[in-house]
Amino acid sequence: MKKALFTITVISSTLFLAACAPSATEETITQTTTIEPGSFLLSEAPGNALPVAEIVKTGSPGDSVVVEGVIGGLLHPFTQGYASFVLGDDAIVYCNEMAEPDHCPTPWDACCVDSDILKASRLVIQMLDQQGMPLETDLKSSLSLKELDKLIIVGEVAKGSTPSNVIINASGIYRKI
Q: Domain for residue 3, yes or no?
């Protein structure tokens, strides 16, 4: 009986220790490959770009898209610490485009636009690493992006996107001049 109890204890201990040791798969997941945000920049403008509002209306998760817009549509369009930002439709009249361009200290937030129109005219752009997680970087410094920059984005509508929360996983970014 003691021998059987000892054998069970040894087998249980071995299984417990094996379960606690990190597997090769777990080690692979925790090792991340650094992706430079600059690797997303495109040297030529992609063709057939659609406006943001069109992608919001018709885009479905998994769709490949080329979307054109302006960084803005919110007071703080950049996500602090991550490679993502809000892209607003180019048809939105931002405060700097109005008759009194200096009346607003944050013209990119489009505060003068009706909120329902604004909600239907913006989406989120994010840049992911090889594990599908947002890159942890500040795009204002790493890519010198800023509010009101006009961009063309190549990417895919993210899984889980809805018409009220469209997210594009970017594979390429072109800054219009």
A: no
H-type helices in 21-160, by residue range? Answer: 24-30, 52-58, 115-119, 139-142
**153 near 87, Cβ under 8 Å?**
yes
The total of other beta-carbon atoms located within 10 Å of residue 27's CB is 9
Structure tokens at 54: 């069109």
Look up the domain containing 45 and give its range. 34-175
The alpha carbon of 162 is separated from its chain's Cα centroid by a whole number of angstroms, namely: 15
pLDDT at 34: 55
Q: Are 108 and 86 in contact (CB under 8 A)?
A: no
- What is the tally of structural domains in the chain? 1
Residue 44 lies in a domain: yes
Query: Is residue 16 situated within a structural domain?
Result: no
128 belongs to a structural domain: yes
pLDDT in tens, 125-147: 999 998 999 999 888 888 899 99
CA distance 177 to 168: 22
- pTM, 2 dp: 0.78
